[in-house]
Amino acid sequence: MSAAPNLELARCEACHSRFLPSDGPCPRCGSRRCVPYSTSPLGRVLAATELEYPATGWTAPHRLILIELTDAVRVLAIGEGPLPAPGTLVEVSRDNDVYRARREPSA
User: Fold this and answer.
1) Residue of 44, 35, 93 lying closest to 66 (CA atoms)
2) Does a cis peptide bond (omega within 30 degrees of 0) precede residue 61?
3) CATH code for 7-103?
4) Residue 38 in contact with residue 7, Cβ under 8 Å?
5) Does residue 105 have a pLDDT over 50?
6) Domain spans, the chain
7) Which pairs with CB-CB distance under 8 Å and at least 24 residues apart come from 2-5?
8) Could you give the CA distance from residue 58 to residue 60 in angstroms, rounded to a whole number?
9) Which class for 90: exposed (0-12), middle (13-18), buried (19 or more C-beta within 10 A)?
10) How far apart (Å, rounded) are the C-alpha atoms in residues 61 and 52?
């Protein structure tokens, strides 16, 4: 598998918090002095679940994965492939406003 491009995050210049990009102010301090930056798309699974009866418009099974990126930013992503166990290394990509995760192949 080829390496995924870096993920775009935001960093607040006032309080230095890092978070997923948004059009609003910093979720921690409310400052509007936020700048984009790139980070590795790799992270570890914190929790994962599989929905057999997801909301209308989503296919079953629908896998949701909570991931902590290497920059300590957490993201909720749609899982592709088998449901990973906590601690599994995954690769995160952004598809418009949806984050997707897949297992990182072992070396």
Assistant:
1) 44
2) yes
3) 2.40.50.840
4) yes
5) yes
6) 7-103
7) 4/41, 4/91, 4/92, 4/93, 5/41, 5/93
8) 7
9) buried
10) 5
pTM across the whole model: 0.86
Tens digits of per-residue pLDDT, 43-77? 999 999 999 998 898 888 999 999 999 889 999 99
Query: What pLDDT, on a 0 to 100 scale, did the predictor assign at position 107?
Result: 46
With 90 as the cut, is the pLDDT of residue 2 above it?
no
Residue-wise DSSP of the chain: -PPPPPEEEEEETTT--EE---SS--TTT--S-EEEEEE-SEEEEEEEEEESSPPTTSPSSEEEEEEEETTS-EEEEEE-SSPPPTT-EEEEEEETTEEEEEEPPP-
